[in-house]
Amino acid sequence: MELPDLEVLAGTLEELFKNKTLEKLDVVVGKKLNVSEKELKDALEGHKLLSVEREGKTLEFHFGGGNVLGLHLMLHGEIRLLEKEKEVKYQILNFHFKGGDGFSAVDFQKQARPTLNPEKSESPDAFSRAFSADYLKQVLAKKKVPVKQVLMDQKIVRGIGNAYADEILWEAKISPFSVSNAVPGQQVEELHQAIDNVLRKAIIEISKQHPKEPGAEVRDFLKVHGSKLKKSPGGAEIKIGVHQGRKAYYTDEQKLYQ
DNA sequence: TAGAATGTTACAGG
DNA sequence: CCCTGTAACATTCT
């Protein structure tokens, strides 16, 4: 899950569970936790959920009592609503609220990472003020790795993953394989704008679809990233490259700077 | 059916 | 020390 999915998911969870009291927290898989199971339960049980926020690709559950649970869903983690008589597979954490409803964080890969009171990250979120065009220019100027790698580097900017990196680069008409420090300043400005435009449009699209399950995959509006897509909206054939063991979808409409 | 899948991190090598 | 590339994680879907 990337920034747009998580932004909508945070909002949905807040709507459903805000101001409800966490009656019981089941820790099914605790190996990725930064504290003991008991410490986590002691910190959160009996407290109201005040808000659900997104920080980069992490969800943050803010509870009364001042504690925050960070939850990174990694590659395949999901949130499932807990309903009676319906078994939820691959549970990691189960949140049971007073009144009977709740949700579960699940992950068949067991990689989802819950963190009690996560430290603030130093790198800017893609929606933060600190992520300016000038900042992006400065970072790119220092790097010779492909520009796509920089977009996905959470130490540089938080929230963008493989799928949206492809969408953003198509929007900006820059090849994912462009050498970072070879992209001209004007194009970096357009790239910076494309990041904001693509992510914000995606949030609107995902919200529109109003999926039954919070956080269900909504990818049908992507323009180039997807194995079923053959042509971009401009009619160009979509090419498939590989970068860091993952696919990059792009077209000849995008310029290669090197 | 083997390989890819929206992510991150550890580790090896240069 | 910095940078880069690869494998691993565990299961599902195509």
In words, what does this structure look like?
The structure is a single chain. The protein is elongated and about 55 Å long. The protein is built from 6 helices and 10 strands, in the order αβαβββββββααααββ. It starts with a helix and ends in an 8-residue tail after the last strand. A hairpin with a 4-residue loop joins strand 3 and strand 4. It is α+β, with helices and mostly antiparallel strands and 258 residues long. Helix 1 packs parallel to helix 6 and helix 5 packs across helix 6. The strands form 3 sheets. It has a 4-stranded antiparallel β-sheet with strand order 1-6-7-5. Strands 2-3-4-8 form a 4-stranded antiparallel β-sheet, covered by helices on one side. It binds a DNA duplex (14 and 14 nucleotides) through helix 5.
Helix content: 25-40%
Beta fraction of the residues?
15-25%
The topology string of helices and strands comes to HEHEEEEEEEHHHHEE
Large-scale geometry: elongated
Distance between the termini: 31 Å
Overall mean pLDDT stands at 92
* Secondary structure tally: strands: 10
Largest sheet: 4 strands, antiparallel
Q: How do the strands and helices of this protein lay out in sequence?
A:
Layout: H1 3-17, E1 22-27, H2 37-44, E2 49-55, E3 58-63, E4 68-72, E5 78-82, E6 91-97, E7 102-106, E8 113-116, H3 133-141, H4 147-152, H5 162-172, H6 185-209, E9 239-243, E10 246-250
Helix pairs in contact: 1-6, 3-6, 5-6
The structure holds a DNA duplex (14 and 14 nucleotides).
